[in-house]
C-alpha cells in the first residue's frame, strides 16, 4: 500500500466532505479514491466515514486520526522540498587534511554557498582522499603529490616546545643539525624523536625523508610515525619530541617552528575533482585557492611540473636518491 497516496485520499475526502470533490481535487478517478479510502479503513480497523447519509460525515475514528494524517503529509512534503533543494544546490563532499585552519575552511563553506554549491568538509588521510575521488564519495579533495610537480606547496619545518622569551631568530634548519652530538655522557638524555603526522605518512614522502635523514647522519629510529595529532602535539609542547609539520599548524597550538632548508621535503598539493561522466574533472579556481590557504599552501612558482632551466636541485637529488 502506498501510505502517502491513501492518506491524501483520506484527508481530501474529509476536507471536501465528498468523494467526488476529493477526487477532482487530487486529479484521480472517483472509484480509485474510494478504493484507497476503503483500503485505509481496513488498515486502521474501522470506518473513517459514515456513508449512510446523502452527504458523508467523518466518523469519530476519522476525526481522531485526521491531524496525524495531515502531519505525516506535511512532513513528507517538507522532505521532498529539502531533497529538491539539495539537488539544486549540488551538495559536494570535500576531502581535506586534519591540520587545516578552521577559519579558512569556513571561508570555503561560505564561498560555496555564494556559488550555489553546498560543501561538506571531511577530514581524511591522504590515501582515503584519493580513493574517495575515485569511487565518487568525494566531489573534491586536496591530494598529496611530489612538490616539484604540484600546483601548491607547503613548506615543512620542525615544531618544538615554545621558546620562553619568544625572541628566537628566524632561520632555516638543516637535518644535519639534529644529529646526536659526539661525546654524549651516560647521564645525558637521548635526543628527542622526530614525529611524523598522518598527513606525511605517504610512501614517496617517507622514502625521501629516509634518504635525506641518512645523508644527514640521523639514526633511522629517530624518525617515528605519530599516532593522534593531539598526543604528538602534547609531547612536542612538553619538550619530549619534535614534530614535522606546517607553520600554521605549529603556530595555532603555540609551538615554536623552524622551517626545513630542504625544499624537496615540502608538501605538494593539487586540488582535484571527481571525474565527470566523460572522464574529465576540474575543481573551480575559487575553491582551489581557498583549500590551499587552509593548509598554508602557496602556488608553486615552477607550476605543475618541472620547468626546463628551473628545476629544483634538492628535489631532483631527493627523487634520485
Question: What labels describe this entry?
Answer:
single chain; alpha/beta; six-stranded mixed beta sheet; five-stranded mixed beta sheet; 11 helices
Order of helices and strands: HHHEEHEHEHEEEEHEHEHEEHEH
- Overall pLDDT metric: 85
Total number of strands = 13
Strand content: 15-25%
| Neighbour order of strands in the largest sheet | 4-3-5-12-6-13
Quickly give the structural class.
alpha/beta
Instruction: Provide the low-confidence segments as ranges.
Output: 304-321
Tally of individual helices: 11
- Kindly report how far apart the N and C termini lie: 69 Å
In this structure, how is the largest beta sheet organized? 6 strands, mixed
Portion in helices = 40-55%
Query: What integer value in Å does the Rg equal?
Result: 32 Å
What is the approximate shape? elongated
InterPro entries: LysR_HTH_N, WH-like_DNA-bd_sf, WH_DNA-bd_sf
Organism: Streptomyces eurythermus
Family: Belongs to the LysR transcriptional regulatory family.
Domain HTH lysR-type: 1-59
Amino acid at each position: 500500500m502506498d501510505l502517502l497516496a491513501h492518506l491524501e485520499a483520506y484527508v481530501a475526502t474529509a476536507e471536501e466532505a465528498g468523494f467526488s470533490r476529493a477526487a477532482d481535487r487530487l486529479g484521480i478517478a472517483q472509484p480509485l479514491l474510494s478504493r484507497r479510502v476503503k483500503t485505509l479503513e481496513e488498515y486502521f480497523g474501522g470506518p473513517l466515514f459514515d456513508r449512510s447519509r446523502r452527504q458523508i460525515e467523518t466518523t469519530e475514528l476519522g476525526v481522531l486520526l485526521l491531524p496525524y494524517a495531515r502531519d505525516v503529509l506535511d512532513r513528507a512534503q517538507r522532505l521532498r522540498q529539502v531533497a529538491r533543494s539539495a539537488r539544486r544546490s549540488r551538495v559536494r563532499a570535500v576531502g581535506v587534511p586534519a591540520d587545516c585552519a578552521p577559519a579558512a575552511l569556513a571561508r570555503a563553506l561560505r564561498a560555496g554557498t555564494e556559488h550555489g554549491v553546498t560543501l561538506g568538509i571531511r577530514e581524511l588521510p591522504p590515501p582515503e582522499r584519493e580513493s574517495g575521488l575515485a569511487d565518487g564519495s568525494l566531489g573534491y579533495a586536496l591530494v598529496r603529490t611530489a612538490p616539484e610537480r604540484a600546483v601548491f606547496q607547503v613548506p615543512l619545518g620542525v615544531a618544538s616546545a615554545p621558546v620562553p622569551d619568544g625572541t628566537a631568530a628566524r632561520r632555516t634548519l638543516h637535518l644535519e643539525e639534529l644529529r646526536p652530538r659526539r661525546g654524549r655522557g651516560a647521564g645525558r638524555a637521548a635526543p628527542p624523536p622526530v614525529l611524523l603526522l598522518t598527513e606525511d605518512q605517504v610512501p614517496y614522502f617517507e622514502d625521501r625523508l629516509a634518504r635525506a635523514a641518512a645523508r644527514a647522519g640521523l639514526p633511522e629510529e629517530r624518525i617515528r610515525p605519530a599516532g593522534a595529532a593531539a598526543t604528538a602535539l602534547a609531547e612536542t609542547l612538553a619538550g619530549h619530541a619534535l614534530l614535522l609539520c606546517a607553520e600554521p599548524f605549529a603556530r595555532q597550538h603555540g609551538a615554536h617552528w623552524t622551517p626545513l632548508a630542504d625544499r624537496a621535503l615540502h608538501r605538494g598539493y593539487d586540488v582535484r575533482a571527481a571525474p565527470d561522466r566523460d572522464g574529465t574533472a576540474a575543481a573551480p579556481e575559487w575553491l582551489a585557492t581557498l583549500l590551499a590557504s587552509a593548509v598554508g599552501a602557496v602556488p608553486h612558482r615552477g607550476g605543475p611540473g618541472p620547468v626546463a632551466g628551473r628545476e629544483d636541485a634538492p628535489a631532483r637529488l631527493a627523487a634520485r636518491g
